[in-house]
Specification:
By secondary structure, this protein is an alpha+beta fold. It contains ten helices and twelve strands. The strands form three sheets. Strands 2-1-5-4-3 form a five-stranded mixed β-sheet. It has a five-stranded mixed β-sheet with strand order 7-9-10-12-11, covered by helices on one side. A two-stranded antiparallel sheet has the order 6-8. InterPro entries: HATPase_C_sf, HATPase_dom, His_kinase_dom, HisK_dim/P_dom, HisK_dim/P_sf, Sig_transdc_His_kin-like_C.
């Protein structure tokens, strides 16, 4: 019970209501004490009127008047020359004098608390103004036992009433909180548990129905999150199935390409000049295709091989990529340019860096050719103390909005129409294995620029 929201709310409500009642109780008891003393002054004034009618009264009548007024002595000053008095023996010295004519609220509360917590019977003097302006002042002497009993009775009644009000209020609030907050919250928790049991089932997505605005906003946010998660899970399932299919295709393709490698030796021995010129390119292409298949199989097993770092001239890789892409251009008006410093040596995995540059150049070529406009692709490089920096730029139409939004996410839209977005995602992953990065620096109608950064410092790769 105490561990529940409604149970704790019930306890807190009772505590807060009782605190509020205590804050009300203290001044109300002080007010009760003041009224009690004023009533004794009024009774004493009425009793003293007998003396006005007859200057001489017997002792028994005087005692009865004082007993009815519940005081010991009465002094009524009507003017400076005359005083009317009723008196009886005082059982103890006067403990304190209380003047009610100009007492502050603090003094009334302080004196009331002193009476409540003082268990001894005291004799006090009380001074006040007579009612109906029947004199200058009236003064009585009285004992505190009757006052204290009356204050205790009054206080217990107030506390009992406060407790009843607190419990009644707390129960009403308890029921209201259960209806307004606890039940909707339990409904949301139940919807989350139901959804967690089968997140692929769209029937388990929560349907917002809360009447409280904050809870409705929470249900709307939960519904949006569950909908997105269900869509992502479906996509992940499709990607897993596609990955299994790609692994099978890569396995068979690797076997086919391996067989094709056996025939390249005979091609290389041909005396035909054209064959001699094209044979090395064919051998390199087949070798890289075999490596891609092997890497795809390793990626499907979450075992992407770490880069094998070595030093080599960057010009060789770039020239090889551009030469291969020129063969795909044919008669199309597309030019290639290289801005690679002579003798620039980089440290990287040559095969993986080739794949990265080839992906970027191929994407640029396909984008320009799909636009139907002439264009140019340029590959440049520079170095500083910390890194080698390569740029691949083109004069194509720029990346579409979806490609910019999901630039390095696979299967989220490629850089060209019909693309799957795998090339950039694979390239970024390969460069991360080098401790480097692939960034889009600029894209638009004037063209696109990608930047490759390869650090020179030794880093742990995996």
């Amino acid at each position: 019970m105490l561990n529940t929201l409604s149970g704790r709310f019930l306890i807190l409500t009772i505590i807060f209501v009782m605190l509020a009642e205590i804050l009300i109780f203290v001044p109300s008891v002080a007010r009760f004490r003041e009224d009690f003393l004023l009533s004794r002054l009024e009774r004493a004034q009425i009793a003293s009127l007998v003396l006005l009618a007859d200057d001489m009264i017997d002792a028994e009548l005087e005692t009865e008047l004082l007993r009815n007024a519940e005081v010991l002595n009465v002094v009524l000053r009507r003017d400076e020359a005359r005083q009317l008095m009723l008196s009886s023996p005082i059982p103890a010295p006067i403990h304190a004098t209380h003047d009610l004519r100009d007492a502050s609220a603090f003094e009334l509360i302080r004196d009331a608390m002193m009476v409540l917590f003082d268990t001894q019977t005291r004799v006090i003097r009380v001074i006040g103004a007579p009612v109906r302006e029947a004199g200058i002042l009236i003064e009585v002497t009285m004992q505190t036992d009757g006052l204290r009993r009356a204050m205790l009775d009054y206080g217990l009644n107030i506390l009992l009433l406060s407790a009843v009000i607190s419990v009644f209020t707390a129960v009403l609030l308890f029921l209201a909180v259960r209806a307004i907050l606890v039940r909707p919250i339990k409904r949301v928790v139940g919807a989350m548990q139901t959804y967690a049991a089968a997140p692929e089932d769209t029937r388990r997505i929560i349907r917002p129905s809360a009447g409280v605005r904050e809870l409705r906003e929470a249900e709307d946010a939960l519904q949006s999150m569950q909908s997105e998660l269900t869509a992502l899970l479906r996509q992940k399932d499709r990607l897993a199935q596609l990955g299994a299919a790609v692994a099978k295709v890569s396995h068979d393709l690797r076997n086919i390409l391996t067989s094709a490698q056996l025939f390249t030796d005979r091609i290389e021995t041909s005396e035909d000049p054209t064959v001699k010129r094209m044979a090395p390119k064919l051998v390199n292409s087949i070798t890289r295709a075999v490596h891609i298949c092997e890497s795809t199989l390793a990626f499907g097993k979450a075992e992407e091989p770490p880069p094998r770092l070595s030093r080599f001239p960057l010009m060789d890789i770039v020239s090889d990529v551009i030469e291969s892409e020129r063969l795909s251009v044919g008669e199309y008006d597309l030019s290639f340019s290289e801005d690679i410093p002579a003798g620039l040596i980089v440290r990287a995995d040559s095969e993986q860096l080739y794949r990265v540059i080839a992906n970027l150049v191929r994407n640029a070529r396909q984008a320009i050719m799909s636009s139907g406009q002439p264009g140019e692709i340029s590959v440049g490089a520079r170095e500083d103390d910390a890194a080698w920096i390569l740029t691949v730029s083109d004069t194509g139409p720029g990346l579409p909005p979806r490609a910019r939004e999901h630039l390095f996410e696979p299967f989220q839209g490629g850089a060209r129409k019909g693309g799957m977005g795998l090339g950039l995602a694979i390239s970024a992953e390969l460069l991360r294995g080098h401790g480097g990065s692939l960034d889009l620096k600029r894209t638009g109608p004037e063209g696109t620029v990608f930047e490759i950064c390869l650090p020179k410092s030794d880093v742990a790769t995996s």
